[in-house]
Amino acid sequence: MQYDLTIIGSGPGGYVAAIRAAQLGMKTALIEKYDTLGGTCLNVGCIPSKALLDSSEHYHNASEHFAAHGIKVGSLEVDLARMIERKNEVVSQTVGGIDFLMKKNKVDVFHGVGAFKDAHTITVTDKGGDLKELTTKKTIIATGSKPITPAAFNYDKKRVITSTEALEIEKVPKKMVIIGGGVIGLELGSVFARLGTEIVVVEYLDRILPGMDSDCSKELTRSLKKLGMTFHLKHMVTKVTPAKSNVKIEVQKRDSDETFEITADYCLVAIGRRPYTEGLQLENASVSLDEKGRVIVDDHLQTTHPDIFAIGDVIRGAMLAHKAEEEGILVVEYLAGQKPHIDYNLIPGVVYTWPEVASVGKTEDELKEQKVEYKVGKFPYKALGRARASMDIDGMVKILADKTTDEVLGVHIVGARAADMISEAVVAMEYRASAEDIARMSHAHPTYTEAIREAALMATDDRALHI
Description:
The chain is α/β, with parallel strands linked by helices. The chain has helices spanning 12-23, 39-44, 46-64, 80-104, 163-166, 183-195, 214-226, 321-335, 364-369, 385-390, 418-430, 435-439, 450-461; strands at 2-8, 28-32, 108-111, 113-118, 121-125, 131-141, 145-147, 160-161, 175-179, 198-203, 230-233, 235-242, 247-253, 259-264, 266-269, 273-275, 308-310, 349-351, 356-361, 374-380, 396-402, 408-415. The protein is built from 13 helices and 22 strands.
């Protein structure tokens, strides 16, 4: 079986690359280790977590906000098992959609572990041990990442869990400790906090969401505290001991010998993810890894072998599904002789808590480090008529613009529908818009996006209309 392009891994990066390759006339093979396509994102990541986030949000609104809207309900009860069932239905539908797209685009799909026999020969070993051999001109490695689980945390998949197991809990726990104040931990923590679980977050650094703008961290911390979540910042977990019905977590203050112990139903380890390259036998293809286990690539995402490329979580950069998609398209179009380009500064990041957090471009700390002179425009959600109407008054929009040229350098949003609103900022920044450009564009009233215009007005000459 001979192919123009073989892709190992069927996550968003891999399957999108396969579709684009087929569109450009390449005979394409897609190899997936597991029984279903879609990778981490569709099966145990982005899609299932958003399904649970939405379900828990509905319950929380019914419990906390319906009465204010004049909606009377009887006694509320959480059926977490049904929530999990619905989540699985969403995943099944989405994965089925990928199967359809592969057939539609005539991509050959192989289920099994892909490994390099040499740079142009890939073996696929299925669950039964049967082996197929593919010959390929070019290859894309898109094998993604796995959760980091240090040995001291005694990850047992029962009481000490990662996001994968958290998505399958069918009874609302009384208490959960989350190690790590990043995106994954906060999203899943907010799911269970809305359902009534006591959530305790232990974060080594001095704030949550350390990679995002500090104002976003402050805003979200306030909102999550109101939800009932507790934060131990500047603390580290030294030991995790699971038992049959609970788990004990030993915590130490970062800059002292002060320690304490927390007992909970579950301990969710969410300290990041690592590139997944096990079983690929990269040495047979002269593909090298860096000191962090990532596949080394150049600006064209070409590895240390000229006919092998790598994309997504398995290489440098943010571990985001949409980054992987863009990289998959870039590689395929480059192979087709086109001249694609990615501006990594303009790939947005989103946290799907409620309020949501979304960000693109430079943070204020980054501009300070780079000694760039800038100006700031901020506008609070509570001043928006649309936010008051929906009772979503937590949050703000923050725009950072060059002090001299007024070019928008960064946009940071905390609030309802921030995940959708950030695209306006991406488009503006792709065309190198100024804050004044955004301020002079008509924004429909009443909408959440008016906050972007008001923040732009503030950044332009401190003249917001509604504060």
